[in-house]
Specification:
It is a single chain. This protein is an alpha/beta fold. It has a single domain, classed as 3-Layer(aba) Sandwich (Rossmann fold). It is 40% helix and 19% strand. It contains seven helices and nine strands; from the N terminus they run βαβββαββαβαβααβα. It is globular and about 45 Å long. It starts with 23 loop residues before the first strand and ends with a helix.
Length: 204
């Protein structure tokens, strides 16, 4: 599922090359690897890049806005979308559904927009079934020990939750070779530069 960022998407129409479809960039990483920071840096560097906002059936949290952080819809609407094949990828997490609209992706790509999708490994596999040309990028921590230190320093998770996150990280990192590009986020500035360089190569 794609985590919402509070930034309104700007139009990419001014940068469109006629008769050229846009690129779909898929970014995945274990929790604590710095994916959110990298996404924000990428969106700041390319103001015309569109961030794909997920649909969800959960209730909005305080401060969350419909169409900015998520699109909030009823569960029966989401399930109907599954039956109709409307989701480019979807998952059920803690009794709530999350998904990416294939219609929105298709519309933006056909308009020549470049799109950033922030999803997990499971979502990436679904995306590639529908968009085999998607540019997949996996963000790695330098080591599990470094990742554990980062998770502990955030102070937001209990020791039990951190253990679960580290186990999940090992499973996700084991699938890194499914991705077209791998970035090791050791020094943040270097990781941002690598990510911008990858995107720049496809945009040009």
């Amino acid at each position: 599922m794609s985590q919402g960022y509070s930034r309104k998407n700007k139009s990419c129409a001014t940068t469109r090359v006629p008769d050229k479809t846009g690129h779909l960039f898929v970014l995945s990483a274990p929790s604590g690897a710095g994916k959110s920071t990298l996404c924000r840096a990428l969106l700041d560097h390319f103001p015309d890049m569109q961030y794909s906002i997920s649909y969800t059936t959960r209730q909005p949290r305080q401060g969350e806005l419909d169409g900015v952080h998520y699109y909030f819809i009823a569960q029966d609407q989401f399930e109907q979308g599954i039956e109709q094949g409307r989701w480019a990828e979807w998952a059920k997490v803690h009794d709530n559904f999350y998904g990416t609209s294939a219609g929105l992706l298709d519309g933006k790509l056909n308009a020549g927009c470049n799109i950033l999708l922030d999803i997990d490994v499971q979502g990436m596999r679904q995306i590639l079934q529908r968009y085999p040309d998607a540019v997949t990028i996996f963000v790695m921590p330098p080591s599990l020990e470094t990742l554990q230190t980062r998770l502990e320093s955030r102070g937001t998770d209990s020791p039990e939750v951190i253990v679960v996150r580290l186990k999940n990280a090992q499973k996700e990192m084991a699938q890194k070779d499914r991705y077209r590009h791998i970035i090791i986020n050791d020094q943040l500035a270097d990781a941002i530069a690598q990510l911008i360089g990858i995107v720049e190569k496809y945009r040009s």
